[in-house]
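User: Quick sanity check before I run a bigger batch. Here is a single chain. Can you write out its predicted 3D structure?
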Amino acid sequence: MSETPKNTLQYRFDGQEDAPVLILGPSLGTTWHMWDRQVPELAKHWRVFRFDLPGHGGAPAHPVGSVTELADRLLATLDELGIQRFGYAGCALGGAIGTELALRHPERVASLALIASSPRFGTADEFRQRGVIVRSNGLDPIARHSPERWFTPGFASAQPAITDWAVQMVRTTDPGCYIAACEALASFDVREELGEIGVPTLVLVGSEDQVTGPAEARTLVAGIPDARLAVVPGASHLAPVEQPAAVTDLLVRHFTSAWPAAHETGQTAIQAAPVKPVLAPPPPSVPPRAEIAAAQQPEAATRPDPHDAGLKTRREVLGDAHVDRALATADDFSGDFQEFLTRYAWGEIWSRPGLDRRTRSSVTLATLVAGGHLDELAFHTRAALRNGLTAAEIKEVLLQTAVYCGVPAANAAFKVAQQVIREETTPQE
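Assistant: Done. Predicted structure follows.
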């Protein structure tokens, strides 16, 4: 185990130093201990490398809001250790990291196993809503319901010690890092890129998994060219914990068959030689006349179309469900207005770097109160919670409006906001 700087991850090794490296990636809310029952057998064949997500298992609380950045931090850790090529097995969020590595850094990944994984985890709204719950209530509501999501009912009742371990594991996670990881899952979507994965892949899923079950597993197998499916009977989401022997056997068989060079040649995965970058040829020179013509073009002709950035921001702030409803009801009469909103309000203004989204939400709430726009105040209160404002901070914004916009306006705003906050921050039992 190592104490790590901000751009790397907390890790530990098991097994012989000269063996090829096999990485085990954890799921959201767990630690590297979720793999404890696989390590004794896997360490006979590989040098097993386990890591903790930021803020999990006592790791430094440096939040990461995208799967790409998590993969980059893992690679930075491996680069410091001189590890260039490895096998990778990951569960849920850990599987997303493995998918990202196989897509962006295929020269590093020898073989891949995706457990309880998916090319897209639920909907972005679901994970951003979970972030609101954690920000408002802490991790206790999530922790109490974790056994229901992770294990079959029979296992949870028969193994109270493991159930308690699961609850405590989530409770001890840093809330800010958990929320950031939810955002990483909310924005993860590689459904259109699965065909680019070129490494041998095992897709493993518990037959009773209600979180990322057999349907998601079959989507992965259908999209990845060299993939095969393994369904573990009697297992739910954390199959490595619930059915350790079956999962271990499947991993051993997959990595010994799909990565034979490591065993036939005694290859070690600790390689000092760095991977040489491939340099693209320089772009052709632009004739002087063309340079002059380009310089004389008005700024609007060279600026990128703000529509795509606006739609992305609009969905992240207001939620997919809200935006889908607005776009679905657009017709010949209102369609241009929806286009205007996406390009101008969201692409030109909300996407500007000058203010963060929490500040923009605060300004928006105040101006909506001033204008008496209570319908929009409701969904922007919901957006403010997802942008990181707490209920207490929203209260302070509305109190401020009572002074400058008038008590009646603030009174109406408090009624709307109170109802939305109750709906959004009350944990679902």
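The CA atoms of residues 358 and 388 lie 6 Å apart.

User: Great, the batch can go ahead then.
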